[in-house]
Amino acid sequence: MAANYDHYTYLNTHPQDSPEDESFNPSSIPEQSKAYDETRANRGGSTYYPDVAEPSYVEPHGDHPSDASLVRNANKYQDLEYSDPYNAARAKPLAEKASPFTQILGGSDANRTLQQRIDMKKRGIGRQRYPFVVWILTAAMVATFIYELVANDKAQGTPVSFKPVVNYMLGPSSTTLINVGARFPPCMKFVADVPPTTEIGCLNNTANPATEICTIEDICGFGGFHGKDPNQWFRFITPIFLHAGFVHIILNMLAQLSVSAQVEREMGSGGFFITYFAAGIFGNVLGANFALVGRPSIGASGAIFGTVAVTWVDLFAHWRYHYRPVRKLIFMTIELIIGVAVGYIPLVDNFAHLGGFVMALFVGTVFYPVISVSKRHRIIMMTARILALPVAVILFVVLTRNFYTSDPYAACQGCRYLSCFPTKSNDYCKGTGCRYM
């Protein structure tokens, strides 16, 4: 032992006399191992490998095994561990092929595996982190509501109207809402029962019966009709941004910043934008056809109901990935019933709710990123998408044409009751409804 120790000490103090093992050739170290050592050195680390014994380059003495064999083994360990470093791109599982809709809308599903998408679905993680469209829409609606309050203040001297009729939503008068863009069929087409020359209270009227009289053309605003039939078609779109009062906008924005925002995260902004406005516009198309022709309607409720419909598409398409789906279905049904009940409040239209819901079932089926784990499920979803798109287009075309070319009430006398609860005060939902504004 002492002899060995002295020999080792001598070699350390006289390195030039140390015999070099012919089997050890520094140039034979793999380049990847050298790169690893250089990386460790640049990070302030050591090139010492704790799992590999440090070799000694001394001659064998006595019964001790040759240190040369240790050197060979060390080189083998280096080759095994560092000659083929971990390649993240190569080790990543193949992703499920992205659908054409995903590619068009810029979704990131193409970079994720099927299992990753399933895990994200269970955890409630969608395509994107922030609901940019919802934020922009909410800001625009709040700004528009402030404009409504200012317009009513100029007309009546107060932002909230209490005369001639109390607005229980705590907002502008119905005539002010018509003037800023509410859905109101007499401003959109010629209505025999409510022609442009019909006289009603002006924006500044606070008496009942009215003392300040204006024509429908004056109330519609936007430059009037110039002797032609009314054709303010943009009233299919503008009501989405308008709200009847503080109560109305607070409820809608709470729903939009929660339910609608989550739907946008899951769908992506492109598909969400299309679904949101398709639902909102179609809800106004349906309401313009069948609601009381002389009652204005406003609100983003139809578009928000559309986002609720997308959650139904999600529930049935991903039934197995939802926690307690039956209980969730029950709660969603109750929420839908409550939403329909709210649609009977004046200035809020149930047709906008129901129309937005129905349209979004079709459009949402087309654009919602559904996870298909079997060939059968994939075929079902592809068939549903192929059928949903033409049905949505047909509904838009038929009902828009019906609004401009025929009398919807002749085809469906009882449809008005879906948005008007018959009472003595509204003459049991008969007539045009103009005198109840």
Structural description of this entry:
By secondary structure, this protein is an all-alpha fold. It is built from 16 helices and 2 strands. The chain has helices at residues 2-13, 31-42, 67-82, 88-91, 100-105, 114-123, 132-156, 174-180, 216-220, 246-267, 269-290, 301-317, 325-342, 350-367, 375-405, 408-411; strands at residues 199-201, 213-215. The chain has a two-stranded antiparallel ribbon with strand order 1-2. The longest helix has 31 residues, at 375-405. The termini are far apart. Residues 1-11, 15-24, 32-36, 45-62, 74-98 and 100-106 have low confidence and may be disordered.
Number of helices: 16
Shape: elongated
Distance between the termini: 110 Å
What's the SSE pattern? HHHHHHHHEEHHHHHHHH
Percentage beta strand: under 5%
Low-confidence stretches: 1-11, 15-24, 32-36, 45-62, 74-98, 100-106
DSSP, total strands: 2
Pfam families: Rhomboid
Protein name: Rhomboid-type serine protease
Function: Serine protease involved in intramembrane proteolysis.
Keywords: Hydrolase, Membrane, Protease, Serine protease, Transmembrane, Transmembrane helix
Q: In terms of topology, how is this protein built?
A:
Layout: H1 2-13, H2 31-42, H3 67-82, H4 88-91, H5 100-105, H6 114-123, H7 132-156, H8 174-180, E1 199-201, E2 213-215, H9 216-220, H10 246-267, H11 269-290, H12 301-317, H13 325-342, H14 350-367, H15 375-405, H16 408-411
Antiparallel strand pairs: 1-2
Helix pairs in contact: 7-10, 10-11, 10-12, 11-12, 11-14, 11-15, 12-13, 12-14, 14-15
Task: Throw out a few tags for this protein.
disordered N terminus; about 50% helix; about 0% strand; 16 helices; about 425 residues; mainly alpha
